[in-house]
Amino acid sequence: MAAYTKAFTGLTGMAVSKNPVHTLGVLYSKNLRALAKMPLDYPYRKNTEAIINERAAIIKKSSTIEEAEKKIGMGQIEEVIIQAENELVLSRSILEWKAWEPLCEAAPANQWKWPI
Hints:
The protein is mainly alpha-helical and 116 residues long. Helix content is 56%, strand content 0%. It contains four helices and no strands.
């Protein structure tokens, strides 16, 4: 991929990433390791792995960061990095919570019914 030279993002408080491809690669690999600890059939794991793998493939195939930004369609690459950081925090939290396990006690009647 060509050298990434951008002066500013145009978004207040958001600095330009010096090496976004490397940063995303590290974040995506950490997130995939966290997801690998979840059950294979857990929907969050399936969907998040699919998104990460798709975005990683786009970044590898793109010749420029701008092209990757357009194909991903989620804003500037710096915003994609923030999304990846937030997703990693969420993945680690879900691991801690073990959200795929059954409830400790039965849910109250009509808790999952909406509208009441």
